[in-house]
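ligand=uracil
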Amino acid sequence: MSNPNGIEGTFGALPTLAKLPAKISTAIGKPRMTPASLTSLKTLREEAADCRACDLWRDATQTVFGEGPQHAPAMLVGEQPGDKEDLAGQPFVGPAGEMLDRALKDAGIDRRKVYVTNAVKHFKFVWRGKIRLHQKPNTAEIRACRPWYERELQSIRPVLVVAMGATAAQSVFGRLTPIGKNRGRLIDLDDGIKALVTVHPSYLLRLPDAAAKAREYARFVDDLKIAAALLRKSARAA
Ligand code: URA
């Protein structure tokens, strides 16, 4: 299905939602999966715990699957778990999570009512002394993990997907999607689902000066307010 905003398609060889086979083999390198439309988040989480679709599982503590209600109206997608998330087994519980929580609150969104997940579900890092330093996932890793995002999407069927940062946007749209050019407007995905692109909360943490931090935080909240308005509208229509 096309969409009118010109962002469409998936990674070359990746199965789309409609084309996902009923059962993907458990052979090494393939995630174990059952039919998407029948699969609850609970089952998906259990299946993803054994995922070996790329090598990131080897050094990570565990798969960090998404978290939130089965019928959440919005799905927020980040990049990958960080150090704290890897240890806790929960997405966005570290410093980026605190930033996200604050911005959601300021935008009028209750985090407990949305589903929060990551494009890549294992922590990728290198050791620097005693510190595990975050490494950006590459395209192969994003592709390997994308079936989980697709399965979460199909299981929840939210009104809105919020892609936070470049890795999330690459996963959601199936191609490199510049944040600056696409942020802050609703974009049609398939099946009537909307997408919103914004920055990753970690970006705000990395900004060096207070003025830039305050300005960019306000822009982030403004983006999330677009999400909040859509969610209010869809709740009224339901
Ligand atoms: N950054 C992310 O993208 N996801 C998390 O869960 C934590 C930090």
